[in-house]
Amino acid sequence: MDLSLPLYADNPFESFTEEVTFSYLKKEKDLGEDVFARFYVYNDEQNFFEFVLVKGKTTLEEDSEFIGIYRVFEDKLIVGVPKG
Fold first, then answer.
1. 34: closest CA among 54, 60, 62?
2. How many CB atoms lie within 10 A of CB 21?
3. Which of 23, 27, 31, 54 has the most CB atoms around it within 10 Å of its CB?
4. What's the pLDDT tens digit per position in 56-80?
5. Which residues 6+ apart lie within 8 Å of 48 measured at CB?
6. Alpha-carbon gap, residue 22 to 42, rounded angstroms
7. pTM (two decimals)
């Protein structure tokens, strides 16, 4: 085992889809059921999904609170992205 790699690198997603990665992100970041992805995009060059997360009753901007921007890579690495 290569100790320079994070532990999750040996356990990639079996199905790398928006639904699977979003569920994984919510679980790993301990986000509640009232957190939604207002927007997501797949980057095929670097192989990640980027999610803009909000909390609220709906995904409408006036009804929600910004939570953060996260990238989820196929090897299960989660990276927070600064807003702006």
1. 54
2. 26
3. 54
4. 876 565 678 889 999 999 989 999 9
5. 42, 71, 72, 73, 74, 79
6. 12
7. 0.78
